[in-house]
Design a protein that fits this description.
The protein is of the alpha+beta class. The chain has four helices and five strands, in the order αβααββαββ.
């Protein structure tokens, strides 16, 4: 009886872990059959137009919300470039935000700007919502 109980508990634990792993699985933006839909990007006539609108709106939003005045003391003179990697979940939320390529103070501001992205319609593969990875370069100029 104890062996059966332990086996059943182990099976349930493995199944729960497998489901959790499946929930965390992501696909690249290029692998999606339907891109996420940013608010204001109505579903357009073609998937290519939807992808373009999504990318343009994300870039516009992050650039509008990234506070260059706040990061200026930590940036180098001239052109600065960093990258932010994040996931748009199958629920349309932004998670797993991680920035690289700049001093910590700049990375924190970039992550803050990306975390403030609005809720979106999720990406899909074969009609099913999926978690999608997105990589965003942020470029800004500083004149000191």
């Amino acid at each position: 009886m104890k062996t059966l109980l332990i086996t059943a508990t182990l099976f349930i634990s493995v199944a729960a872990f497998a489901q959790k792993e499946k929930d965390l699985e992501t696909v690249s933006f290029e692998e999606t059959s339907e891109a996420p839909v940013f608010p204001g990007c109505l579903e357009l006539h073609s998937e290519e137009q939807n992808r373009k609108c999504f990318s343009e709106k994300v870039i516009w939003y992050v650039n509008s919300n990234f506070n260059t005045v706040k990061v200026r003391p930590y940036a180098k003179k001239g052109r600065n470039k960093l990258f932010v990697h994040f996931v748009i979940t199958k629920d349309g939320n932004v998670t797993q935000v991680h920035a690289t390529g700049a001093p910590n103070e700049i990375l924190k501001e970039a992550e803050r700007a990306v975390k403030s992205l609005p809720h979106m319609k999720p990406a899909k593969v074969n009609g099913e919502p999926v978690n999608v990875q997105y990589h965003l370069p942020i470029v800004f100029m500083v004149e000191k």
